Amino acid sequence: MKHLKTLLLVAIFTVGLGGVANAQKVAHINTDKLLAEMPETKALKAELEKLRTTYRSDIEGMFKKLEAKVKKYEAEGKTQTQEVNVKRAQEVQLDRQKIAQAEQTMNQEMAKRYQEKTTPILKKAEDAIKAVASEKGIVYVLDASPGKGLLVFDKGEDILAAVKAKLGF
């Protein structure tokens, strides 16, 4: 009789927990799509493209000067001494290193700028997702972006539109 009461209590407790688990709302959002559509992300892309264009233009100018210098040195090479030609070859090599350094600096600056500007954008998106989830009583929000691990999301609530409205776009 004592075991029957314990078994009955365990059964009631288990059924009760199952009901609580079913009451929790789950939603999904494609964060990649959200981030891509945010005005801040679009502005960041434009800023990075402008920066890339500036750097590319400077690097191309350096490269054109180097090409002209190489052509000039090759044309004058036969009339110059071995010592002058060696010095010119070293100069050309130094210019090539400067171009490589400029490209490396460009890549580092682009990565740094991207990192600096992306962090607040991600924070803003996360805060909006949390706010919408809280307003709608959603306990779990899963990321429906491709490759993020969520495979089936037909039956859950998609909160993308609500988050975009919360962000004002």
Notes on the structure:
The chain is mainly α. It is built from five helices and three strands; from the N terminus they run αβαααββα. The protein has a three-stranded parallel beta sheet, covered by helices on one side. The protein is rod-shaped, with a radius of gyration of 31 Å. The N terminus is likely disordered.
Which keywords apply here?
169 residues; mainly alpha; three-stranded parallel beta sheet; disordered N terminus
Give a summary of the structure in a few sentences.
The protein is 77% helix and 8% strand. With 169 residues, the chain is mainly α.
- Helix amount, in percent? over 70%
**Strand-residue proportion:** 5-15%
**Radius of gyration over all CA atoms, rounded:** 31 Å
Number of helical regions: 5
Instruction: Summarize model confidence as the mean pLDDT.
Output: 85
Structural class determined from secondary elements: mainly alpha
Order of helical and strand elements: HEHHHEEH
The major β-sheet equals:
3 strands, parallel
Q: Shape, please?
A: rod-shaped
As residue ranges, the low-confidence spans are 1-11, 15-21
Q: N-to-C terminal Cα separation, in Å?
A: 64 Å
Major β-sheet strand ordering: 2-1-3
Number of DSSP strand runs = 3
Oligomeric form: single chain
Reconstruct the topology from this structure.
Elements: H1 2-23, E1 25-29, H2 31-37, H3 39-76, H4 82-136, E2 138-143, E3 157-158, H5 160-167
Parallel strand pairs: 1-2, 1-3
Helix pairs in contact: 3-4, 4-5
